[in-house]
Amino acid sequence: MKITGDHQLIKKINKYLVLDTIRRQFPISRADISARTGLNKATVSALVNELIESSFASETGLGESSGGRKPVMLLFNERAGFAIGVDLGVNYMLAMITDLSGAVVKKKRIDIAELEAGALTDKLKKTIRGLMPHVPASPYGVIGIGIGVPGLVDDQGSVLSAPNLGWTDVPLQSILAEEFGVDVVIDNEANAGALGEKEFGAGRDVSNLLYISVGMGIGAGIILNDTLYRGFSGFSGEVGHMALAQDGPLCGCGNRGCWETFASEKALLVNARAAYDDAADADAAAPNLDTLLSLARQGDPEARRLFADTGRWLGTGIANLVNVFNPELIVIGNRMSLASAWIGEAVYETLDSRSLAFHRSRASVAYSQLGHSSAALGAASMAIQRFFSTMKATWE
Ligand SMILES: [Zn+2]
């Protein structure tokens, strides 16, 4: 029989469907795959055999039976390959190795002071190179690298603009692909964080989710109907530059009164420097987020006031977003999520008083379940997704 292009395409789609079902539902029997996908049992068996041959699935002991013979269960081989995910923050870099289900094998976090594009990409290469010896042996090895960056990224993986890094037009994807010889995916860090929370964190059972990354800047990853909303040119989510005041502080983008000039870590530090201007305490005189958190924990009223102010500004911006998007869940992530104990009440109070009652009533607010790791995990999950899509194209 002549296999036509259509048949091949249908087979690829079915095989991917079977693989995806095993990935998300394992341990699972062939009969359950058939029931979930609507494919007949003979097709499922043939495709499962191919997936076992290519190391993506394996058989394990017998599962629960509903009466007859106990079925053989199938497992997804999470360790068939490994991804590297990196969250490139403005004052830190978090890099990790994960298996194909997002389990972290090794991670490394370093502080960053030098932001210049050449120096920082060198540091990024060095950090990734340092992880390579820790990648366990596997059939597919390193399947790809994903990077979340605080800026606008085009579809070629070039960073067009990252104001908080001072970068314009950095072809990061091609720099790293050339260096490491594997597929590289670059995306905005808030998009990566949203995908990380959706795939592995607080947003697993949620279809409409806003992930608000509050670090030195503020960005959002917008997931609508289970899909990341990228906008027409791929630049959606620049919520940090929502104009909240006509004549506010000058923002890195050139405008005044943007949300991130009031509610970001950067804004908090500017206000803290003014507040502790003549403090005798050395920690307080040169505040950073960690010293402010420790002051707040010790009951320092000034630190607590600064966090409450930040929380009120965060709540104001989030209220606007809730009114526009009517989300089910808002996840506050990145560094400011560490301050949840000190900003939380102010966020809720402002959100309650500023958002429309019908919108607010069914929207919940959570802090990142993945802690620091949402963007790095999301970046790894983008690399994993890319790997499976590329793999699908090569199937016969
Ligand atoms: Zn701005």
Distance from first to last alpha carbon: 15 Å
Structure summary, number of beta strands: 16
* Average residue pLDDT: 92
* Uncertain spans: none
Largest sheet: 5 strands, mixed
Tell me which oligomeric state these chains represent: single chain
User: How many domain modules?
Assistant: 3
- Return the string of H and E elements: HEHHEEEEEHEEEEHEHEEEHHHHHEHHEH
Report the C-alpha radius of gyration, rounded.
Answer: 23 Å
- Major sheet strand order: 6-5-4-7-11
Q: How much strand content do the residues show?
A: 15-25%
CATH architecture of the largest domain: 2-Layer Sandwich
- What is the fourth-level CATH superfamily of the largest domain? ATPase, nucleotide binding domain
Molecular shape:
globular
Unique ligands: zinc ion
